[in-house]
User: What shape does this take?
Amino acid sequence: MERARNTLFFVAFSLLLAPRAMVCQTTPPTVNYISPTGLQQGATGTFLVEGTGLTGATAIVFSEPGLKGTVLEVGEVPESRLALETKVAVVAKPYFQDPVKMQAKVEIAAEKWVATGTHQFRIIASDGSSTPGNLMVGSFPEIEEREPNDEAAHAQQVALPTTVNGVILKAGDEDQFRFRATSGKDVVLLVNGPDVGSSLNPVIDLFDSEGRQVASNSREHDRLTLGYRAPASGWYTVRVSDYLKGGSLRHFYRLTLGEFPFLKGRYPLGLQAGTARQFQIWGLNLGDTVAAVPEPFGLMAGKTLDVGAISATTRDGDTANLLPVAIGPYKEVEEAGSNHSVQSAQELGFPVTVNGRILLDSSGHALPDFYRFTAKKGQKLILETTANRLGSPLDSVVEVLDANGNLVPRLTARPVWKTQITLFDRESKSPGLRLAQTTDLELHDYMVAGNDLMRVVKLTNGPDEDVIFENFGGQRLGMEDTTPEAHALDDFIYKVQLHPPGAQFPPNGMPVFRFYMHNDDGGPGYGKDSRVTFTAPNDGVYYAKVADVRNQGGENFAYRFTIREPVADFLITALPTNPNIPDGAEVPIEVVALRKEGFEGQIHVQFDSLPEGFTGTSGDIPAGEASVTLLLSHRSGMKLPGGWTRYRIVGEAAIGKETVRRVANEGDMLKVVSLMPKPDIKVYVKDEKIRINPKGEAQMTLAVERFNGFKGRVLFRIQDLPFGVRPIDVGLNGVMIAENETERTFTLECRPFVKPVIRQIYAVGVVEALVPTEHSSRPVTLEVSGTGN
Assistant: This one.
């Protein structure tokens, strides 16, 4: 009942806030999807790209070379096509205008050497560059699904090998395809769905000529791949449907059928850099090929992991796919195979990487693997797995046990205060939680909900805001190797104090949380792979246990387990990745650091290269802090050939005697700058310099000038404030200049622990839209002086 009341309150409150009239705003373009979803290497095709804000589209830009496109025409999406869209219930109208759905007709050509798989693209239009879209490139001839084909009697006949581009258009629809298979050959069926932005949760069922079901992807760990060895030559039918029986234009797929060689797995998952070895391989149509040698090139920058790829040559040619293999810096050993208990644990020195598998016993139960190692008191080690990142189905969990086989305790968290999570449920990645009470919270306070230990990095500025916890790339971080969890409405959350393991306390009516040397998911960059940061409490023998968190296993549940000393490092991200900059204006780009394994030093960040007419500031992420803002400026009237250019931001830091260089968003190959018209607003800070003392307050005044007929409200963020300085008492909507106003004065508060510093800060105004635009003030000097003592 309480949950229902909260939901009704939220709906009513949203309706109250909804404006009586819409306002104009410039909205950068978006891409929803492309139809068809891909093309063959060496082919040229015509495609429809659906999205919003595509007016004046002039170019399509791809993440890798070898793909070229031309925009042929742009228009609104016809009503007949809109009728096939997914219907979404809307509780209350958003504050911004609902943009018109548009489609661009484009011609795309792929060179023969373009890698198969997913490639990203952006549309360059009058209002800037779009959100990214996905285009698939395949090896085989491509055709379009042809209706009616929802019954076996009307199955569309196809020749092998081929890729079918199809759509489950309406609820309950099914698409069926008929083909001839060869006796003794493996039929390979590959389908793409959610991995390329489709709403389809694909179900593939295979039937023989008698209509008997002979295979289904519902029985496979990898539901996007299905293989079946035909016992006799003849006709077979494959059926594609949606698991939830849904259907719309967004329920699209690519179905590849053939009898080509295909790799499903390899063992081990990697090798040591500078060495060579054969890999055991398995898959479909491999014949008598059972081993292969990887290509030892690197695809990932990092001190502890690089990645190459492996393929195989068979009598029928090369395999149609590649599989990744890790290239590590440490000595490698093989799992003993009998190390399934503490008593039979395999002895390891370190640094070392073990290649192993989680196997099943005769009863079908998963067998954990145990490793024995010795550490000195206070010695810091990293124990980590690499498995799921390389395609293994293993969802690993790593635990450290003492000499008696008991989990080594990490710390004790004692609650001193509690509240509840409100508003709605939150998923495990959410960086923020809405709390019923926040008055007793301080920055860097630790909180526990469930088994999730988190740390506060941003307090609320008003009652209608989330408390923000430590995160990277929008993904909440689990402190002390805990795994972030989903949290339900009304769940209790506790403010805790951290104490040594085993500490005892008088009862205070709240549970005491005890955490151990245990990890499920290792955080950003690890996915479902595990990482334990271990500090030995005493000299002695310890055991590492590697298992599957679901108690699953098998020959393909391979992993690489590494024990090593910490390697200080960092990663950086920059947002937005595609800054759309108005003519003659400047936009803010926030660069955020993820500090790894003890690195807390300063990081210098700057633009690596910019074309004529653009300038960018440089900056430092101070030691121990997480972010800095850079300004990208455009000189009015300066043209940008094609309306766009690629760019990148790099960060450098001294780690020991080495200068380490990292590229922001290194895996994103589609970072572009593009131009858009005159900005909707210009942001000013009326204070040239702001002085504030610890435990003190200061006033700050913002102003906006509006253009392009924009009359709406403007929300603000104050960027690069020192940790412990924040706006206070700013109301439900935070720092905001309302529709009929041009100025706002508010108060900055400085917490007592803030040290003296001089810092450049920025006011960033946000114009609400489907894709919001951000507009920065010039830098303002903030001086914190004196002490809070």
Q: What stands out?
A: The longest strand covers residues 409-420. Residues 2-17 form the longest helix (16 residues). Residues 363 and 565 are 38 Å apart (CA to CA). The radius of gyration is 29 Å.
